[in-house]
Amino acid sequence: MSRRTTALACLVSSVLLTVLTATPAAASPADWDYIALGDSYSSGVGTSGQTGTCMRSMNAYPGLWSTAHSPASFRSVACSGATTSSLRSSQLSALSTGTDLVSVTIGGNDVGFASTIMTCTLVSDAGCAAKVADALELLDEEIPAALDATYRDIRAKAPNAKVVVLGYPILFDESAPSCGFAGMSIPKRKTLNNGAVELNKVIEARARAAAFTWSDVTDDFAGHGICGPSPWLHGLELFPPTDSFHPTGTGHRSGYLPALESALN
Predict the structure, then answer these.
(1) Tally of domains within the chain
(2) Which of 95, 90, 103, 99 is nearest to 37 (CA)?
(3) What does pLDDT average to in each consecutive run of 10 residues of the chain (265 residues)?
(4) Considering 224, 234, 246, 252, which one is annotated as catalytic?
(5) If 0-12 CB within 10 Å is exposed, 13-18 middle and 19+ buried, where does residue 77 land?
(6) Alpha helix (H) ranges present in the chain?
(7) Known catalytic membership, residue 28
(8) Is 48 part of a structural domain of the chain?
(9) What pLDDT was estimated at residue 28?
(10) Which residues have a Cβ under 8 Å from the Cβ of 254 and sit 6 or more positions away?
(11) Is residue 259 situated within a structural domain?
(12) pLDDT the model gives residue 21
């Protein structure tokens, strides 16, 4: 065999070995070590069984996926209120070279999700539009770099993992004339929904730039927005108020879980 042929054979073998080992798709989920990162949309706020200051629940989509597939190991370090900064400082230690699968939702709190929603609940349509405009300015100027840094750190800590970045649902049904006690007007709902669309666009672009798998949950939640006839998200809740504007148990089971499943097929 010539030197050139030998070198080519080695190259082909190396490429095949990389393909077979760099992603868990080549093995059964029963062999995977799975870590869930992220904010309240991954920790399980809005579902039953929340515990601790991070409000984690096995009824969130990561726990539901783990129950369905029985991976070799599963751990959720997702935390209510997490930002890109707090994820990088407090969640990445859960990752390792042995991690096979990572899922993450992040970015909503970086643009002030909670404060924007509450402001829109209390102020006029114009005031809501101004608040969302401020968030979109932040989204354009600061969030792409914050996501890039977060995704780089995830890849550095889990170099062999398949990383699935999930987006956020469009919160509101825009057709219902009323939206319950202290509900949003139709103009407010449209403004907030447009903000969610723009946020998802930025997250998708940065996830793809990092060569991560993007999973858009918009279609999964279509027809199930707040104020609609069959909502999979909580509206404004008084008991407990933290559930407000988060997916219900059905939202995780019928919305987020299928989105994760499809990203892994």
Answers:
(1) 1
(2) 103
(3) 43 41 62 98 98 98 98 98 98 98 98 94 95 96 98 98 98 90 89 97 98 98 95 93 96 98 96
(4) 246
(5) buried
(6) 3-21, 40-43, 61-69, 84-90, 113-122, 125-141, 143-157, 186-209, 218-221, 249-251, 257-263
(7) no
(8) yes
(9) 86
(10) 220, 232
(11) yes
(12) 39
Quote the pLDDT of residue 109: 97
In angstroms, the CA 32 to CA 25 distance is 10
pLDDT at 69: 97
Q: What is the pLDDT of residue 174?
A: 95
**Residue-number span of the structural domain to which 221 is assigned:** 27-111+144-171+200-263
Q: Read off the tokens for 136.
A: 């979109």
pLDDT at 7: 42
Catalytic residue among 40, 66, 103, 244: 40
End-to-end CA distance of the chain: 40
Name the β-bridge partners of 105.
38
Which tokens is 94 given?
């859960």
Confirm whether 246 is a catalytic residue.
yes
Q: CATH code at 66?
A: 3.40.50.1110
Residue 13 within any structural domain of the chain: no
Q: What is the pTM of this model?
A: 0.89
User: Considering the domain boundaries, does residue 138 fall inside one?
Assistant: no
Task: Give pLDDT, residue 14.
Answer: 43
